[in-house]
């Protein structure tokens, strides 16, 4: 069993009187692909936001590679090696594909001006290496032929892939993907599954994904954590989750997800 890379312990988050996340505890081992699923409003995005330091937890801790990263800020979390993608394509539309990837490279040097000057995590950008690194990332993500195109001109599926490329440019050890398959057609979905497997198998990445596309989750994930109304109701291998009565009642049995 490989060691845990991410360990979330007793994580809670309130918004006024609403408890969006209640004492969530789970781990992701090095090299695993884990799915975080649940119905709309279950707290999945809140969990991502708290883990990546976008919003502070009301209680609980987030440890990454043994270090406490609870409460962010996001720039520190990225420098620690944890990157995320967003539900919607989140690139700069007027900037070229290569320029967007370069933006990701810059953020591995902590967000502050001082951080950029001193170059934390050995992340100093040697100017001569920048184009080669951008090309390597575009090759992995199959976007090389779009290198100089404005990001906004890419088909939606490729814009989402560019979001992954930007996250890869931070040189993460772990990627958190928020609904990477949303809005993708069948072929794009298969392509995404191939890319995510490649990132794990050949680039050693650990992945946590929030996703409503159950066929993709069941096929790709080694383990699944199920949230309902902010609480973890189940955790296990896909075949166990698929047959779990509480999960079927709260989520998988709902008409929208009946294809699972
Ligand atoms: N900034 C906020 N202020 C107030 N309430 C919030 C905020 N962010 C989320 N919530 C509430 O917290 C709960 C969990 O929301 P969250 O977006 O985390 O769910 P989700 O599982 O990601 O849902 P979806 O699958 O629809 O994206 C919801 O009731 C939501 O309305």
> Averaging pLDDT over every residue, what do you get?
89
What is the CATH H-level superfamily of the largest domain? P-loop containing nucleotide triphosphate hydrolases
| Beta-strand content bin | 15-25%
Q: CATH top level of the largest domain?
A: Alpha Beta
State the total count of DSSP E strands. Answer: 10
What is this entry, summarized?
With 260 residues, this protein is α/β, with parallel strands linked by helices.
Task: Label this structure with key terms.
260 residues, alpha/beta, Rossmann fold, 2 domains, 6-stranded mixed sheet, 4-stranded antiparallel sheet, 10 strands, binds adenosine-5'-triphosphate
Describe this structure in words.
The chain is built from ten helices and ten strands. It has two domains: 170 residues, Rossmann fold, CATH 3.40.50.300; 81 residues, no CATH class. It is of the alpha/beta class and 260 residues long. The protein is 36% helix and 24% strand. About 4% of the residues have low confidence. It has a six-stranded mixed β-sheet, sandwiched between helices. A four-stranded antiparallel β-sheet has the order 2-1-4-5, covered by helices on one side. The chain is globular. Helix 3 packs parallel to helix 6. Adenosine-5'-triphosphate binds next to strand 2 and helix 1.
Give the helix/strand layout.
Layout: E1 4-15, E2 18-29, E3 33-37, H1 44-51, E4 59-64, E5 67-68, H2 74-80, E6 82-85, H3 97-106, H4 113-118, H5 130-140, H6 156-168, E7 174-178, H7 186-203, E8 206-210, H8 214-220, E9 223-228, E10 231-236, H9 238-243, H10 245-252
Parallel strand pairs: 3-8, 3-9, 6-7, 7-8
Antiparallel strand pairs: 1-2, 1-4, 4-5, 9-10
Helix pairs in contact: 3-6
The structure holds adenosine-5'-triphosphate.
Organism: Pollutimonas bauzanensis
GO molecular function: ATP binding; ATP hydrolysis activity; L-isoleucine transmembrane transporter activity; L-phenylalanine transmembrane transporter activity; L-valine transmembrane transporter activity
Pfam families: ABC_tran, BCA_ABC_TP_C
